[in-house]
Amino acid sequence: MSTRKKIYFASDFHLGSYPLEHSRERERSIIQWLDAIKVDAAELYLVGDIFDFWFEYATVVPKGYIRFLGKLAEIADLGIPITLFKGNHDMWMFDYLKKELNVQIVDNELELVLDNKLFYIHHGDGLGSGDYKYKLLKKVFRSRFCQWLFARLHPNLGIGIATRWSKHSRLSNNEDEKFLGEDKEWLIGYAKELESKQHHDFYLFGHRHLPYDVKLNPESRVVNLGEWINYYTYAVWDGENLSLEKWEKKS
């Protein structure tokens, strides 16, 4: 077996998104990718919106994803640390996955030093200027009171509401994503603001769904991880270089 030295980053699997048959097909591709990387992975970072909806009741979690969760369990049992970020679709993670899979759950951002390089990692939701409506909603949805209220709903009702909401998402409608230019891409703007205060070698985000790799300056890059609906992209750090790569689906 080869030496485990690579660190992998992926986001926006949106497992459980409508239509479900596409989600199951996507789950198979993700498992194939996890099988491929477990040979040389030192760590795995899943940067939010892994599930299209997730809420942990006291004794109930959303059904499904058995093969995916089983593969994560296998990877964890191999001694490969897994870090899971909350996204805007799966922000209601608590301690179930931590207890079952020993994953680290990250609420917001994470600053990480890898091989003397400083990484800033965040799902990307609610960052930058504008989008005040979502920022307000995020505060409401993250509040303990709101979570307590939702937990009072029967799971059939609560998860049913979330499923209907999912059918109207940009992913379900396959809306085309286009690069807006560095001046209009808000995550690049946010990274520039952070960089003006403190240098980071790499800024890694999800959420935007469009994969890109942009230089802020000769020593700093912004990488958006894309999604696994259309692009099947991920990033890998090999100890010296960070590359944005595409997984070729297998039949």
TrEMBL record:
InterPro entries: LpxH-like, Metallo-depent_PP-like. SUPFAM superfamilies: Metallo-dependent phosphatases. Keywords: Hydrolase. It comes from Sphingobacterium ginsenosidimutans. PANTHER family: UDP-2,3-DIACYLGLUCOSAMINE HYDROLASE, UDP-2,3-DIACYLGLUCOSAMINE HYDROLASE-RELATED. The keyword Isomerase does not apply. Coiled coil: none annotated. The keyword Hydrolase applies. It comes from the Bacteria. This is UDP-2,3-diacylglucosamine diphosphatase.
